[in-house]
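Late entry, evening session. Most of the bench is empty. Finally got around to the prediction I had been postponing all week. Sequence below, unchanged from the version circulated by S.P.
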Amino acid sequence: MCTVVIDVAEPGGSRLLAVRDEDPARAWDSLGAWWPEQYPGVIGIRDRRAGGAWLAIDRSTRRLAVLLNRADVLDLPEDRVRSRGSLALESVAGRSPHGILPMHGFNLLEATPDAARVISWDGVTLTETPVPHGVHMIAHDALDDPATARIARWLPEFRDRPARSDGWEQRWVDLLAASAELDPTDDAAIIRDNRPHGYPTQSLLYCVADIGHGGLEIEQSTLTAPGHWG
């Protein structure tokens, strides 16, 4: 479970806030060029166990991709299921997922200066949802899903603070801090502790990114304690 807020501008460019939830015991590496031979020029947040990425960017092509897990109905033995860690890396290399995938469910958010979209896989069907202009949120289900408590609670707040002017990063981070006043086990929390819900994941970090025709900038901030702000 992760959360992304994105503001897609007209005529172009996107700005986003992405919060990563993962098992704190699963080792990872901060933003870096961890794949120089296979993906030259790509930087991302690396999962050491599988070698893939939660989020990846290519500044030369101004592409960004971020991976969010979702429920699925995949009917495969676990020893035949492939890691989803290659998805963000392949995406920023210009190779989006297609066909039938031996992977558990996901939402893959892809953003360039000209457009953004969500590619979703539920174990049976691969679908694509263009992200319209304006501010949107996605987590473990559909884009702007009103049944997702954190989206229902916080999307109106982010829409009241669009990322179209200077200082947008701080305004969105301040709102993220305000959201952290909720208990991290609350369904409406963005900074999360998912253990009471049956998952070992907790919020570990967040990134803010600006994707435009003039360049792609990104900044990572790591939480001092998993699942807690401050």
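Two things to note before I forget:
Helices lie at 86-92, 149-159, 168-179.
The chain has a mean pLDDT of 96.
Will write this up properly tomorrow.
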